[in-house]
Amino acid sequence: MTTVIEASGLGKRYGRRWALADCTLAVPAGRVTGLVGPNGAGKTTLLQLAAGLLEPDSGSISVLGERPAGTPEQLGRFGFLAQDAPVYAGLSVAGHLRMGAWLNQGWDTEFAKRRISDLGLNLRQRAGSLSGGQRAQLALTLAVAKRPELLLLDEPVASLDPLARREFLRDLMETVAEQQVSVVLSSHLIADIERVCDYLVVLTASRVRLAGETEELLATHHRLSGPRCDHCTLPVSWDVIEESHAGKQSTLLVRTSGPVLDPAWTVRPVSLEDMVLAYMSQPGDAARADRPGLEIAS
């Protein structure tokens, strides 16, 4: 499998607190990867490490086979959009495009101008007077017009209204189809992840709890209901992710490598939101039981 990001034992510490620790993952190329997890799981830290904005305190990370932002050439191969869609308030839209052309060797001027025109943005307007959605679209244009192989997007639509969010994601998918770019999209909005992502990474307590193709993950997770049971009576091939018991009945969310054929169980499909929330709701101590004493930033 060709990867765009590889991390092994990756960690970042702020003082005595670890924002990310013992993170190991491989993000495949050619996919739109959704990165989800609760607040404090380390999503932003992971993306900033991948963008070369931070240096790791432990472990290693490579982006497109190289050290993040190790050379100007490598820096030009990926684009990064932070969650606040940073633009310069006093600089015009045209000024941002000129800046992008000056900073990026592979800058596509015609694409940038065409996209700004399609968005209906006034080239003379200062970025500070744009709406939140317009600023996000301008920032996306700057990230994409450099013609990157990889886009790193950190909560790019978190502050947008539903219409602006839909337009942003639509434009993102058009860009992916046109430029064949790999994307890592961090979001807490499961509906957006489901709409655009075909690969999923769930990060909790700085550890990758789940990773794989979205359709395959959904096919191997099941919601079961049946007679009350305990773990010792369940097949060893069932990985119980979530469970609840009421009276004589048990309800489980399990991951299996094959179909559930036991007639004692009623089997229902699992939505992406249910699956993600089940992993996110697992106790933090259990998620990092192999790292005793580790303190995770909230």
From TrEMBL:
Keywords: ATP-binding, Nucleotide-binding, Transport. One of its GO terms (molecular function) is ATP hydrolysis activity. Pfam families: ABC_tran. InterPro entries: AAA+_ATPase, ABC_transporter-like_ATP-bd, P-loop_NTPase. PROSITE patterns: ABC_TRANSPORTER_2 (PS50893). Residues 5-230 form the ABC transporter domain. The keyword Nuclease does not apply. It comes from the Bacteria. Belongs to the ABC transporter superfamily. This is ABC transporter ATP-binding protein. It comes from Trebonia kvetii.
